Every structure is written in C-alpha cells, then in structure tokens.
Amino acid sequence: MRIAILGGTGNIGRGFALRWGQKHDIIIGSRNAEKAEAFAGEYKEILEDRGYEAHITGTDNKTATENAEIVVIAIRYNRLQSLIDLITPVIDEQIFISVVVPMEKNLCYISPNAKPRTVPISSDQFNTDYFCFTMPEAGSAAQEIEKMLPAGTELVSAFHTVPAKKLANLELELNYDIGVCGSSEYSKKLVFELVEDISDMRPLDTGPLEASAMLESLTPLIINISARNNMKDVSIKFI
C-alpha cells in the first residue's frame, strides 16, 4: 500500500516510516518538502542497512496526500484546520488515520458542552505538572477531523497509545494492544492489518469513530503515569 505520513518528520512519524517501510511504499509529508526528502532519505538508509528494499520518499503534505491510498495524520491538534484546508482539493477516496491527541499541560478536563479554555489552578493547592485531555467541542480530535474532511471520506482513529521512541527502535518487539475506532468495517480492517504489520501488536475494535475520545484520553494518562512513576515509554496490554 502507498501510505502518506503527514507529520512524518516527527517522532511518531519516524516510527511508522521505519516499521511500515519494511513492507509498504511510504511517503513522508511535511510543510517543507526539502525537510521531508531529507528525513525520507535517512529512514530509507536505516532500513536498507538492515537488508530491506525500502521505498520511502518525501514531499509536501498536499502532494503526499494526493499520491497515497492511506493517509496518516500525525500532527499537533492546533494545526489540523490549516492542514485539512491544504489537502482537501486532492482528497479522492483515500482512507485517513488520525493519531492526533488534543491535550495540554496544566489544563482541566473540558466538558463536551464547553469550548476549550485554559483553567488556572493554584500551584500552592495542587501539583499541576501533568497533562490533561482537552475535549474538543465535537467530542474528539477524530470527530473534529471528520467534520473538516469532505463528506464521505473514511476516517479511522488509532495508535494513540504507542510510545514513539520504542516504535522507532527496530530492535524491539512491541507486545502492545492498539485500540481502533471507526465507522467503516472496510477501513477498520485495513488499519487492523497495518497494526499487525508491526511486530507483536494486536488490534482491538474499540467502537465507532464517536468512541475516539476514550482512546485519545489515554495518551495524557500514559504520559502522566510514566513521568510520576519513573517508567519510560509506557503502553497498554489487555490481559
């Protein structure tokens, strides 16, 4: 499959490229095409040194989307609107995967009926050094993306609990469970296959796209647990 990774020069993008580049054609997307090309060359060299015939290229986000069958959105939540506006003219039956998490440091949980806003917390009353899921008005980042994309575009939400550093470390087998949310069984099946392409990962159906908030909120939880308990790159396994 031809997989575009928008934000492919970031930490999580690196891991996806190195893991999927062993079996699929990867297009690294970035706001800067030259930067994407440089990172693509680096990823390709790493895989070729390990004996893989890697097909990894780099370009701007719009071109990457245009030439892909599957598009992974791996950017910051606050950059979503500008990215979707950019790529909308070239969207044509691609399947999208969102790994986006709306979270901030030192913010309180935002209810579905409230617009996101900073809530100051007195540091002399609470230890505020933590990350918190900030629920968008639509309910989740995935649902926000769904509203931005052209009607009928298939979108799946997944990979929110994958530690980026371990994903990029090809020496590791990743015995993790990956929740997958989506309203199309066909798209979910494709994402299940991509999960299974990565070492020992196991995909689990966690419901329709509307259930994505539960997955997205796990990311700040995992980060907080890691930071407060001297654990590195924590993930999830259901036993």
TrEMBL record:
Domain of life of the source: Archaea
Keyword Nucleotidyltransferase tagged: no
Pfam families for this protein: F420_oxidored
Ranges for domain Pyrroline-5-carboxylate reductase catalytic N-terminal: 2-102
GO BP annotations listed: copper ion import
GO annotations of cellular component type: plasma membrane
UniProt KW keywords: Oxidoreductase
Alphabetized GO MF terms: cupric reductase (NADH) activity; ferric-chelate reductase (NADPH) activity
Protein name: NAD(P)-binding domain-containing protein
